[in-house]
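Protocol step 4 of 6: record predicted structures for both targets in the notebook before any analysis. Target 1:
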Amino acid sequence: MTRTTPLDDAPEVCRLDAATLARHYADGTLSPVEVTDATLQRVVDIQSRTLAFSFLDVSAARAAAQESERRRRRGSALGPIDGVPVTIKDIVWVRGWTIRYGTRALPGFEAPEDAPAVALLRAAGAILLGLTTTPEFGWKAVTDNTSVGITRNPWNPARTAGGSSGGAAVAAACGAGVLHLGTDGGGSIRIPAAFCGVVGHKPTFGRVPAFPASPFGTVAHLGPIARTVADAALMLQVMSGRDLRDWYQSPWPLPPVAPLPEVVLRGLRVGVWDTPPRGPVAPDVEACFGRALDAMAEAGALPTPILLPEDDLWDLFRLHWYSGAAARLASVPEEARGKVDAGLREIAAEGARISAPELMAAQARRAAFGAAFEQMLAGYDVLVSPAVGVTAFAAGQEVPPGSHLTRWTEWAGFSYPVNLAQAPATVVPCGFDGDGMPIGLQVVGRRGADAAVLAVAASLHALLAPQ
């Protein structure tokens, strides 16, 4: 079946992956300036129908592309992403850019320095295009805010792009950049990747250094969104490293990501997680996941049903997330808080009522869950699950209309347990629902095993590629 995709109207140069661009740059058949100009125009072309961007720095992007072109001509490229267009989520610092956090409640903040991940991308020659949209302070799993408006799904503008890295996933799906930096505190990379039909990876906590620290604490991760697993792995490799500004990072290095190891699906021990802690699994998602499991088994993998370690994981995540929301809202002057998204104000009010003993008990519960999760994973090479129990629903809504749900956490149950465990997880496309909206598959592994997770995800992406 031939489907119309968000890339169909994109210029050919905007469809290329990083490795292909590097080859063209090396042989002179394309230049970083040519690709950057085409990508900037692509951003302009999609912006009115998607609202994927909150800021575009044309002059800086073109100047960086010219520098990259000069390096390429001298044969002194800084690495494999030199000259590759990149976007940054509008809650991550970029030196000299005004970061808005998706809100009108605070004045724009000119970042005095690059966040560590941005500095690593810049040092590798990436062309920084601009900032992608987020809900206010990245608080929910759909993307709309008072600063830009509603970010819309490129497969159907009446549907949500997901969030909170919704703008990044839309830009990836449309060819408005090759590599996209997102954040994930409860699914914010993986959910929009699934809804928009692209690849998203939440790394092992601490692999990508973070500064300033997230108000949402140690459930929050930075990671890549791209159209291919290889591009996501390449971006992750560039952003990985130790940064002394991030005290939460482990002082010892994690295993490298690149090159990805070879994966043989035959004999692969796959734990099958098909029931979220809370919320629905739509029939189309269930059927698509079942077909994926059948394909894995036919390829020789060994899928085995599993149950997550017992705890009320929805409540456990709520205690962490809502207290983080209270901390985030406390940074907004009291007289401006009325401008903040009502939903964020509501969960922040709940978070402010969580006592210190409750929060300390939640941290102990989390430690017990994380340890049990690691022990469970010791018996498998990876876990697989649906990426999200539902597909993209009406834009501008926090929950699917008519679902009787009240908060995004009630339909994102395949996401936040992995944040609580700080484990790596990759989402790849694996099919479509009856309305033609993408469905994603999630691959989860042990902490530190990002390379193995990405390698399995690449194999499954190839195996399950929608036709």
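Target 2:
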Amino acid sequence: MPIEERTIVHFDLDSFFVEVERLQNSLLKGVPVIIGGHSDRAVVASCSYESRKYGIHSAMPMKRALSLCPQAIVVNGNMELYSKYSHMVTEIISEASPLYEKASIDEHYIDITGMDRFYGSFKWAHELRMRIINEIGLPISFGLSVNKTVAKIATGVAKPNGEKHVTLSMVRSFLNPLPVNKIPMIGKKTTEVLHNNKIYTIEELSNLSRLEVENMLGKYGMMIWEKANGIDNSPIVPYHERKSISTEETFDIDIDDLKLIDNLMVYMTEKLAYQLRREEKLTSCITVKIRYSNFTTQTIQKQISYSSFDEVLLRTSRDLFKKLYKKGLKIRLIGIRLSNLMQGSPQIDLFNDTSEMINLYQALDKMKKKYGRNAIQRAGGMKSDPDHKSPID
């Protein structure tokens, strides 16, 4: 399978959370900085390059990080601030780019295929990078190559605050000497499997047959083999920011059984929270809607710190319901809406959560992804799951 030649730029903001904090406080420049909670059981959400020299990395327990670098400055995360700067960068990219994809809060892919006929692609990417640096003040790196995979790997090589151009003729020589964990999709466990089979570099992996890689790595083996060979025909997915997600249930018979309603809210909240995490999004606004038997409809909402976790959203939803509900009236419809969405992995709102909580949600979501969303639920939520034939239906 030949490499399909396009012109793709991958932009990635360097140590994004830390650099945003440094814009607010110049005393943080040049020193080890860790973003996260202050308790020993909290985890590292992000860290500066100065901290990484000590072996600190994201998702590491804070206690361990501070034992490696006691002099590091710990700063509580501020997702609202990071979201603001992310939008500023996206606005500049959207103004300049013919087609772009926002892959996360701090990275974008841009398709500029054909640009060389009118304007040098590398020159265009360089000027866009300098515009972001000059107008916003954040360091950013880019990789320019023939597809998303090679461009992303090139960005990693260019960091921090650098640029890397890998032409079609350079793809093999560029990828070959790199360690296998430089390939997107290859995490710790896959790296261990490859190392156990004496495969350490991308060249060693690419020299295997597709069948050998599939037998070794399972269903993702083919995709990983293609990436190792510089092949990635996945398109740029145009960015459209989703504003909210919601769910609501209308009862066949108007009810006032608060226990059944609470069970339903558990089910609805779990459903929305899992959808957020699956799409790598966070919410900062929760709205509860009630329609009574007389068709009067009322809503109430509350702003929260960015989150995508069941207990945070459920606690807020329950509080809002208690404030909104008028005792003695029967309910016809109940709804929950999550808005003010932003792109972000589930970990980045865990500035004060524990490593145990992160591991729990990762394990639960892994099981839900493998066996279906209803594979694991709170007991109360199961009672109101439509698939379990609740009496509410």
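Step 5 preliminary note on target 2. Confidence is low (pLDDT under 50) at residues 386-393. The CA atoms of residues 244 and 339 lie 4 Å apart.
Proceed to step 6 after PI sign-off.
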